[in-house]
Design brief:
With 99 residues, this protein is mainly beta. It has no helices and eight strands. The chain has a single domain, classed as Lipocalin (Beta Barrel).
Amino acid sequence: MSADGKWNISVAAPTGPQQRQLTITTSNNTFIGIVEGGPQGQQQVSGKVAGDKLSWTAEVTQPMPMTLQFDVTVTGDTMSGTVGLGPMGSVPLTGTRAA
C-alpha cells in the first residue's frame, strides 16, 4: 500500500507527546510532504522511499535548534519508527492514516 495521503503522527518527545499532521506524495523512490501543527507551523519536507520505509530530515528551532532524522515503516494504515534527536538519542514515532 502506498504511503500517499494524510497521516496523524505522534512523536514521543522529551517535552511530551507532539501531535502533527503529515501529508505525503510519493514519486518512485522519493516523496514530498507537508507537516502541520506545533510551534514550527507548516513545514515542507522531502525524503526517500525504499519499499515500505520512508526517511527524511527536518530542521527545528524550538525548543532548541536541531536537525531531526525520521525513519519510519508504513504498514497498511499505520506507520511506526523513530525520530533521531542528534546527541539526545531517538524517540518513537507512531501514526495512523487520517480519514
